[in-house]
Amino acid sequence: MTDTNALLKPLKLRHITLRNRVFSTGHASHLAEDGMPGETYRLYHGEKAKGGLGLTIFGGSSSVAPDSPLAFSQIDMGADRVVPHLEKMAETVKGHGAAIMVQITHMGRRGGWRGANGLPLISPSYSREIAHRSFAKEMEDFDFARVRGDFVAAAMRAKRGGLDGIEVMMAAHQLLDSFLSPVTNRRTDAYGGSLENRARFPIEVLSAIRDGVGDDFVVGIRISGDEMQKGGMGVAECLEACQLFAQSGLIDFLSVYQATGDTQPDLARMLPDMTWPSAPFLHLASGVKAAVDIPVFHASGIRDIATAARAVSEGHVDLVAMTRGHIADPHIVAKLRAGREEDIRQCVGANYCADFGGPAGMCIQNAATGREALLPHVLPRAEITKRVVVIGGGPAGLEAARASLQRGHAVTLFEATEQVGGQLKLAARVPQRESLAGIVRWLEGQVRRGGADVRTSTVATLADVEALSPDAVFVATGGTPIAPDFEGASLCTPAWDVISGAVEAAQNVLVYDETGLMTAIGCADMMARRGAEVELASADRTAGEEAGALLHVAYFQSLYKHNAIFTPNVRLTDAFREGNKLIAVLTNLYTGAEEEREVDQIVYDIGTAPTLALYDRLRAASRNLGEVDRDALLSGQTPEVARNLAGTFDLYRIGDALVARNAHAAIYDAARIARTL
Amino acid sequence: MSAARVRRDPRDRSTMRRAAPQEAAKTAPVRQIADDSPLVAVLIDGGAGPLTPLDVEALTLGRRLAVSAGHGLLAIILSTDAPSGLAGAGVDRVWAPPSQDSDALSHQITALWHDLELRRIVAVDGGEAAEVLRRIAAVTEGQIRTNVAAIDTSGCLCLEDGATRERQRDDAPLLIAAPGRFRPQAGPASGEVSGDMSTGAALPLSPPRSSVPDAAQAAAPVELGIERGDPASLPLSEADVVLSAGAGVSDWALLHQVAAALGAAVGGSRVVCDAGLLPRGRQVGISGTVIAPRCYIAFGISGASQHLQGIEGARKVVAVNADPHAPMIARADLAVVTDTGAVLRALLDRLGDTP
Amino acid sequence: MTRCTVLVSTGRNPVTGRPRLPPEEAAAISLAVRGGLEPRLLHAGSPDAALALRRGLGLGSPALDILDVGVRGDPLAALIAHLQGDRPEIILCGARAEAGECSGMVPHRLGAALGRTVITRCLDLSRDGASWIVRTRMSGGTRRVLGLPPCGAVLTLATGAITATLGSRWDADRGTVTAWPVDAPDDPRHARPARPSRRLPPPIAPPRDIAGGGRVLKDAGEGAEAILALLDEIGLR
């Protein structure tokens, strides 16, 4: 096993000392309110500081100027009104012993033009980024001094706000990186051509910042170690760029990043998800570390403590980021220090935070992240111990059990199958999604160690529940696949059956995606990898539309590689047998025209409907008849409703048993009710 | 607006596939050397199976030295089993000393140095080979450089202070290279061998007499026996064979019995360690222990990527799993797709009671 | 009582860079103490090392001797001269230092100069009448058991052998520290200057996909035979 002590050693950084080697990189949390880091933002970072990390960099891509588009609800560092917010952020984070910085940038061409206050986007050369679909004008002479000034003013605001330093974004083809990269910089003047010329403007900006902020302020950059793009900078040139900045004497650290974000597959390389190996780009940071004299930081798919500790103890980096790791569990370092490594909720790399994020839910498995004001990460013990029964051991049921146990209640959990996990068990069978099992593993560990009575292979009955005389009952029985609404539906196979292994993939297959979730594209890929010829038909403009801008990438890559055919904008409207073949009928949503496919197997995902047999029986015996007080729920109060005086318990329907959504929603349903019990 | 329904094959079967370009040959070009060519010797650990990364590195260094000096390359293999891939690494001659004892080994290699008039003997740090070379240097009072990061006509660049400092030093005939510096692929930190090395340091044509006095030989330690480590307590990182179990294993007593019979250390997937079926120290994978055993046998482990990364260095991988689609099956050199318990029982039957 | 000396050096913490007693040498002290010995600690270098090395006294050693060889003196020559006079029966040291040349040659050069047998990778040491029994680590988890004649040997420790008991007898104020200047020849290494190295750490490769693409069997008996045949083929049975 790896010695984790290396992570706990302090690091001196200019005028400050970081208490350990673990940090959180600047990232788009989508939590800013009107461009400002408000209460939600402050508590979100405060929680990480409380949880023990050494440094938190907030405000991923915080804009320094009004023509830097707020592409993903960043912080506006271009206005003085941000300073009081920064002061509060600094007070909270420093109060918990961590250092705090903000990442500043000019987005350049990276963003939609609508986010730039009606001003033209700017870039070293006239160009358009595919990802955000907007053109940017070539910077004119007068733009240079203005942008330099904007950077200095933003840096001064950070200093006035009491932050320890800033990180200047010099990656992802944002403005300064657009100068560095030959992909985006086609200038023929002193700012284009050689690396020295391309680095001229970034160096001018850093130099002006250093002049402005003085010596007692940390300034670092986030820079690419490999653009991984045709015509872009490879490892050798990026290394040269890193050395150039390190030797400039202007900066205190280099945070090594990779890729560019120009397209969705490029973006997926910046935020490697569960389909990537662990620490896939650590070698880039390690190479930089070997070539420069200043501290090197790195983030990217470092999800577990052992890997993080190896990265530091073997000398590959000085500071290791577990940014998504802290979204899953803000208390990583505190748990490590307390010898409670087993309790760390490890990031599974689902990229829920990056694909969705924001106030509607940051983490697929941790409902409290980003909702600290209403939902504490550690629930206080209840004054009265209650008896809680949970029916169903999927994510909703497990979370209901876990949160109830943390409140001090006695919990009995019924699971009909041999193992808990619910639909996550299925999802984890899809190739490259094995990590999803980690959500279940952690929840189950917490529930079992917390002392719940877990009854697997047990289909709970009304009598079973009543025998326990519960105070509260959670129905988390999930759902079952909805079948297509036509006569030949029985000839079609639900994607679940293929994923579970109950049905083998046939040779020539039509997969129909109506939900746009991972189910159909994952199932299609699973079959394509096993040699099936797959056509993936979807009702949306593309398959997997709801799966997220990052999450779908690995599956599209694999589906294309395995020669799958994509057919968008159709509905599956009929199926019939002809000889030993099946005929599928696809109807074009725009024209109504029908086409037939001759295949061996028709597989579909149309979503799930709640499983309600037990709920219907429990309703009559419950106090609230299953109803929840919405206002109470939204304000964090106990959502009790007294409808049936003969009832002996409160009944809560959660997760897909309530309505089909996803794992985050299921866990959130459970957490916010359980916290009030 | 119902148009006539058509049946269509969406797949354009006439698409021409462009042939994949031929992979460039990765082996060293063939070179003829004369029977009486002077030789540069490389000490490697060897062992059955493909060459280890460390041995590949030693041979890369040896070949660069040999080629730049116009000498032949002799591989001295310490293990009784010859690895595969020696010819591809540019080895001209191979010799395996008869003894396994490190004292005797160093004397035999010293004798070979005398007989063949070897020009250099080199090794890469981290294995038995480097230890043997240290012994040779000590008993012959030979000039040796250690932690070598680069070599050119002016001498060796040697790392010091835990590789944080470096110092240029005179060349020496015995060299131990720092690991990771002479990998086959060129990289930013790859050590170089540059210049015409034919005038570089060379071993004296015959080694000085062994400096170990006879009296000490008389008082040599007595060999009292070899103990097989207890597989249950054998550290994973030390074991040649690791028998590893995942969620697909239910009979743990049987698994431990088979491990004991094979003399294998027991490891496990994250799932079984999380479930408390094995202690955390037994968890194989990048989030547990990274291992490189000579043989890794995975029972009922599906093979999540963090697990596969943790056994990247394993030389042979065996997967036993009821699921033919488990990633571990694709990773394996030998796969058995069936119930894990059945294979464990069959193994135990064949191993009998013999340890 | 058998006289035992443990050679100690100043190491450096790989993460913070601070001087320390290398864990391997701390383990060597523990190993001697567990074997029933009272090892003296011996360091050739600068008296400044005492601060970091005192920790070794807390592990159960009564005394630390420092041979002050000055800035350029050759510590190995000083150690050889001292040990030729002192003649402890058992000399323990780490396989290689954490700072300085880190050549790993010290035990071997000492053995050659003192006419002692060098036994590497020791795991433990126990008394057997007048002689000693040493267990050493061999590959694949096997252990070699050696009987040590009373005339003495140089033992080096298996890397990472023992760390669990470190600090259990932490009491650095016990024991005595003596330092005296020694005339040692210049270390020839210092003929040329050292400079910071840009070549650390060894670069790592990106993770890669490995396809085994091997044989697939379905029958348990056949599978068991094939597994055993594979182990035979690579010499592991």
TrEMBL record, chain A:
Protein name: Putative N-methylproline demethylase
The protein's Enzyme Commission number: 1.-.-.-
GO-annotated biological processes: fatty acid beta-oxidation, unsaturated, even number, reductase/isomerase pathway; methylation
Domain FAD/NAD(P)-binding residue range list: 387-634
Encoding gene per record: stcD_3
Gene Ontology molecular-function annotations: 2,4-dienoyl-CoA reductase (NADPH) activity; FMN binding; iron-sulfur cluster binding; metal ion binding; methyltransferase activity
InterPro entries xref list: Aldolase_TIM, FAD/NAD-bd_sf, FAD/NAD-binding_dom, NADH:flavin_oxidoreductase, OxRdtase_FMN_N
Domain of life: Bacteria
Membership in a protein family: In the N-terminal section; belongs to the NADH:flavin oxidoreductase/NADH oxidase family.
Key words, A-Z: Flavoprotein, FMN, Iron, Iron-sulfur, Metal-binding, Methyltransferase, Oxidoreductase, Transferase
Keyword Lipid biosynthesis recorded: no
Cofactor(s), by name: FMN; [4Fe-4S] cluster
Keyword Transferase: yes
Sequence ranges assigned to domain NADH:flavin oxidoreductase/NADH oxidase N-terminal in this UniProt record: 7-342
From TrEMBL, chain B:
GO terms (BP aspect): fatty acid beta-oxidation using acyl-CoA dehydrogenase
A single MF term (Gene Ontology): flavin adenine dinucleotide binding
Region described as Disordered: spans on this chain: 1-31, 181-212
Sequence ranges assigned to domain Electron transfer flavoprotein alpha subunit C-terminal in this UniProt record: 236-312
Record's compositionally biased regions (Basic and acidic residues): 1-15
InterPro entries in UniProt: DHS-like_NAD/FAD-binding_dom, ETF_a/FixB, ETF_asu_C
Pfam families to which the protein is assigned, alphabetical: ETF_alpha
SUPFAM superfamilies for this protein: Adenine nucleotide alpha hydrolases-like, DHS-like NAD/FAD-binding domain
Record protein name field: Electron transfer flavoprotein subunit alpha
Automatic annotation (TrEMBL), chain C:
Domain Electron transfer flavoprotein alpha/beta-subunit N-terminal: 27-184
InterPro entries: ETF_a/b_N, Rossmann-like_a/b/a_fold
Keyword Electron transport included in the entry's annotation: yes
SUPFAM superfamilies, per the entry: Adenine nucleotide alpha hydrolases-like
Keywords: Electron transport, Transport
Source organism, top-level taxon: Bacteria
Region (Disordered): 178-211
Keyword Cell wall biogenesis/degradation: no
Protein known as: Electron transfer flavoprotein domain protein
Naturally occurring in which organism (per UniProt): Flavimaricola marinus
